[in-house]
């Protein structure tokens, strides 16, 4: 079993790919999005032809939304699915949050007052930037210092009151989720779990039950329940003593042999979407992709399914500079990378520049 190659297909990185941003996000279920620009490319690279404007238009039109579902972390999700995904995944996050609320001296009365103030300010299709929300609360006597403001926003998004709306200038706005998505899909908890299992397996497979539990933030017990419920629609194979799950048609896609090199963004689902990442990233290179294990995932160079380096973009007013950093000093990836790099430049709509800087030799 070639786990890496199959995941390239499942994740729409190789193969037919999707046509629209909302199709990409619906297929993957959710796309990690704490780094906004990285997440835009995570969507764009999985489309047959994409531009930054196409993805931003889908956000502005409310077809995809950014909120905190899986593990209480920012993701893009299909707009109509945001509510049921939060209802499924947020319960555990909120229960674990009580201690943090106590540390920040956020009691129930403060949270309810902050929620009411924000609801009233946003009601009727209005939007507020993060600084605007902080000012609203401060003026009402609710301190937003020492992460209190951010935590209130996170909590109110977890409960489904708000989500992130479009950018206005350089500021991301907040909107009322029920107004921004007036006709959400509705599932029971059991239906929601089963739906998410099927989407995750189809879009990320081959996967383990532990991968799914990590990705969603649900318990292993809940994950097993979901896999058991839809097992007739899935396939399972053992590899190195581990059970890996696929969708029933997982091997029907055709890989594109000319697309062996990929320029993936930081925090991409190809790496971050699994508890066990060893199939695509060698242990000796982990620190180069996640320096100091600080939770920040660097943009990645992928060749034949394996992460072989990182890359950095420097975006200027009318120019984009890309620096390749392969792990192997002897690697000259510029020729192999040309197609992928050109796709990224085309996505951004900017002139092309490229530099090559291998990692220093480790002793």
TrEMBL record:
Classification via Pfam families: AlkZ-like
Designated name of the protein: Winged helix DNA-binding domain-containing protein
Organism (species): Ktedonobacter racemifer DSM 44963
Lineage per the UniProt record: Bacteria, Bacillati, Chloroflexota, Ktedonobacteria, Ktedonobacterales
């Amino acid at each position: 079993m070639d786990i890496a190659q199959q995941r390239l297909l499942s994740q729409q990185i190789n193969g037919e790919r999707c046509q629209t941003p909302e199709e990409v996000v619906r297929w993957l279920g959710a796309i990690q999005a704490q780094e906004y620009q990285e997440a835009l490319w995570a969507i764009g690279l999985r489309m047959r032809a994409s531009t930054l404007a196409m993805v931003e238009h889908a956000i502005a039109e409310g077809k995809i939304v950014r909120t905190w579902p899986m593990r209480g972390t920012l993701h893009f999700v299909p707009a109509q699915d945001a509510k049921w995904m939060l209802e499924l995944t947020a319960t555990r996050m909120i229960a674990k949050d009580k201690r943090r609320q106590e540390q920040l001296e956020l009691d129930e009365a403060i949270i309810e007052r902050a929620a009411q103030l924000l609801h009233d300010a946003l009601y009727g299709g209005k939007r507020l930037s993060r600084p605007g929300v902080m000012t609203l609360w401060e003026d009402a006597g609710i301190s937003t210092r020492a992460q209190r403001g951010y935590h209130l926003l996170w909590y109110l998004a977890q409960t489904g009151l708000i989500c992130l709306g479009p950018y206005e200038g350089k500021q991301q706005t907040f909107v009322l989720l029920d107004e921004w998505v007036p006709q959400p899909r509705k599932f029971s908890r059991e239906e929601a779990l089963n739906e998410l299992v099927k989407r995750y397996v189809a879009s990320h497979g081959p996967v383990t039950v532990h991968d799914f539990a990590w990705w969603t933030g649900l318990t292993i017990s809940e994950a097993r329940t979901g896999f058991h419920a839809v097992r007739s629609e899935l396939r399972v194979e053992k590899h190195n003593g581990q059970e890996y799950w696929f969708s029933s048609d997982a091997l029907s896609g055709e890989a594109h042999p000319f697309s062996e090199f990929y320029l993936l963004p930081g925090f991409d689902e190809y790496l971050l979407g699994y508890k066990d990442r060893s199939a695509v990233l060698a242990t000796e290179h982990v620190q180069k992709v996640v320096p100091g294990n600080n939770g920040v995932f660097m943009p990645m160079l992928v060749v034949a399914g394996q992460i072989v380096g990182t890359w950095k973009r420097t975006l200027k007013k009318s120019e984009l500079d890309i620096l390749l950093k392969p792990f192997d000093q002897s690697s000259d990836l510029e020729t192999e990378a040309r197609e992928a790099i050109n796709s990224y430049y085309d996505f951004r709509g900017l002139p092309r520049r490229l530099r090559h800087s291998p990692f220093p030799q480790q002793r």
